[in-house]
Amino acid sequence: MPAVMTQGGTIQCTSKGTATLTSSAKLTVSDSPVLIAADATSWSIPDCPNKTSNTTPCTSVTGMTSGVSQKLFVGNKPVLLESAAGTTNGTDAACTASAAGQTKLTAT
C-alpha cells in the first residue's frame, strides 16, 4: 500500500520545481499534517526552473488527478497518497509526488 503524503513530503512539477505544501488536516503523522486533496489548489511552486522565452513556468498546483485515497478521509476529505499526480498552471502542466514525508501510515 502507498504511504500517505504529509506536509513533510515533496511534490514537484515536471521541471523539478518544488511545491510549497500546506495542509488544513488535523491528522498528523510524525508531527507533520497529512495532505488533503482539496488543499492542492493552495500550493505554490516558487522555484520552477522552466523560464525560457517559449515557456511559462509553473507557479501553482491547480489540482490533483490521481493518488487520492478511496478509504482514508480527514474531515470527510480524501488524503493524498505517495502515488499522487496533478496539474499545474505552467507549460509543463503536471506535477507528481516524489516523497511521502513519512513511512508509518499507508492507505488505498
In short:
This protein is mainly beta. The chain has strands spanning 10-13, 28-29, 32-33, 61-74, 77-88, 95-99. The chain has no helices and six strands.
What labels describe this entry?
108 residues, 4-stranded antiparallel β-sheet, elongated, 6 strands, two-stranded antiparallel sheet, mainly beta
Q: What profile does the largest beta sheet have?
A: 4 strands, antiparallel
Instruction: Output the helix-strand order.
Output: EEEEEE
Approximately what portion of the residues adopt beta-strand conformation? 35-45%
In which order are the strands of the major sheet placed? Answer: 1-6-5-4
What does this entry look like structurally?
The protein is mostly beta strands. It has one domain. Helices cover 0% and strands 36% of the residues. The strands form two sheets. A four-stranded antiparallel beta sheet has the order 1-6-5-4, with no helix packed on it. Strands 2-3 form a two-stranded antiparallel sheet.
What layout of secondary structure does this protein have?
Elements: E1 10-13, E2 28-29, E3 32-33, E4 61-74, E5 77-88, E6 95-99
Antiparallel strand pairs: 1-6, 2-3, 4-5, 5-6
